[in-house]
Each structure stands twice: as structure tokens, then as C-alpha cells.
Amino acid sequence: MLIAGIEPTLNIDAWRYQMHPEIWVLVVGLIAAFVYAIRIVGPKVVPSGEVISRKQVLIFSLMIFLLWISTDWPLHDIAEEYLYSMHMLQHTILTYIVPPLALLATPEWLFRLLVGNGRTYRVIRFLTRPVIAAVIYNTVVIVTHIPALVNRSAAGGPLHYGLHVILVSSALMLWTPICGPAKEWRMSYGAMMTYLFCTSLVPSIPAGWLTFATGPVYKHYDTPVRVWGMSILSDQQLAGGIMKLGGSTFLWTIIIVIFFKRFMKGFFGDQSYAADTSPSAE
After folding, report:
1. Tens-place pLDDT, residues 101-139
2. Which of these, 4, 30, 208, 238, has the minimum number of CB atoms within 10 Å of its CB?
3. What is the distance between the alpha carbons of residues 262 and 260, in angstroms, rounded to a whole number?
4. How many structural domains compose the chain?
5. Around Cβ 16, how many Cβ atoms within 10 Å?
6. Is 116 left (phi over 0), alpha (psi -120 to 50) or beta?
7. pLDDT at 271 over 60
């Protein structure tokens, strides 16, 4: 039965279950590769000592879980077909949370084994230098919000998944100077804080555009089927809020943690007001 005003090809059941075997293959493949690296390769590369810590195993498990829920039903399908705000939530998870967790879960010996010492090392080292990584990531963020590209990619297919690969790859570059396995590639704490603060500013451009738009920005999401009764303008405003407030709050929280960890360490101990019981000099 068709509803007046809705095209015959439009599925009005936003919550219908849809299988995504490509995501299952990706998740299972990552788990299998990780287990193989830790159980088979690790003991050969690190004959004595810890191959991987329990903390890294837990971080890897969390990363896989977040990768799965952000790219499978129902979040992926709602994000792809109905609500741009859920599309933004999906991208926030894939750029701000999954990449740093993946880097933190990777043992240093495995990272060095993957990058080697030749051309691959030089290319990755160049792409993960702070300025280069920040420019690439923020360029990808801006480009992936171009209406024509969003409307075409949201229709599904290789372009949609290709953009996700590019987005995650650029995010890995961005986060490597912060929490990459190679310690010598990381920046100083002060530089990290500046780097993250500057990174939080660029998304304000598309976020502001979405928040203050007076009409539909992306025609693909201007559908008669409204999930949770959310209008197209409310959806865009929520998307802008997630992009600006969600992303910025996450980055600023990290900045605050770095500040207290590095610059306020031992401050309260040094400021003790306990009575000085040492003998006074005559």
C-alpha cells in the first residue's frame, strides 16, 4: 500500500533489518589478523618480554565494538537513508574515537613491523607529520560535506564506503602524532594541546552552515519519512551540534587531561600548607 506523496521506491520502514555482510567480513578479518599477529608473529618478534598488554587487548575490543555498531544496522541505515545527524554521529565515532583506540591498541613492535624501514616508512612518516596530517584531515572533513558529494554517496555503493575509508585513514594520520605506537613520532605535550585546539576549529565551518541553514542542505535527507518525527531543519541543527559541540568537547577534554597530566603534575603537593616542622635556622 502506497502513501500519498511518497514515491513507490521509498521504503517507509526506517527500522527494517538490513544485512551488511561486508561489515562482518571487515570486523572478522580485523580480529583474525590481530589474533594472528599477537599469537603467531608476536612471539617470534618479541621472544622475551610482553607481546601485548591486557590494556591493549581491552582497547582493541572496544575499538572493534565501536567500529561495528557505527557501521552496521541500525545506525548505518538510519544515517545513510533518513537522518544526517546520525550520519554525523557515525562520522564522529569513526574519526574521533575509533582511530586513536586502534593506535593505542597496536603494540610498538607490530607498528614498526608494518611500516618497515624503507619507502613505506618514509611515506607514512611524511603523512603523519602534524602539519601535513592536520591539513589532509581537515581538507577531507570539508570536502565530505559538499552537498553534491553527500547526496551521491548517501545513495550507497562503493563511493560511500570509499569515503569512509578516506575519512578513517586521514583520522589515523591526525591521531598518530598524539597517540601513535612510535613514541618518537609524538609531539610534546604543549604542541599536542595547540594541535588539538586548532583541529577543533575547522569543523566549525560546516557545523555553522548546517546549524543556521534555513532550508534543506542535503536533498537526499529531505525525505517524507521522518524518524522520531524530526524535521529536516531540526536534523541539520542536531548534526551541526554533534559536529561542533560533540567533537570539540571531546578534543578539549583531551587538552584538559594533557594539561593537568603534564603541567599540573605535582602542583598540589608543592602548594601544601602543612606546618613546616623543620628546625629554623638561628
Report:
1. 999 999 999 999 999 999 999 999 999 999 999 999 999
2. 4
3. 6
4. 1
5. 10
6. left
7. no
Residue pair 127/136 in contact by the 8 Å Cβ criterion: yes
- Crossing angle of helices 54-71 and 21-36, rounded to 10°: 170
Q: What is the pLDDT of residues 41-52, one digit of tens each?
A: 999 999 888 999
Are the CB atoms for 178 and 192 separated by under 8 Å?
Answer: yes
Question: Which grid cell sits at 42?
Answer: 608476536
Q: Give Cα 175 to chain centroid, integer Å.
A: 9
CA separation, residue 15 to residues 18, 55, 82, 83 (Å) = 9, 36, 10, 12
Cβ contacts of 150 within 8 Å, gap of 6 or more = 84, 144, 218, 220
- The predicted model scores a pTM of 0.87
Distance between CA atoms of 239 and 217, rounded to whole angstroms? Answer: 11
Residue 10 lies in a domain: no
Residue 222 structural domain: 23-38+50-265
Does residue 233 lie in a domain region?
Answer: yes
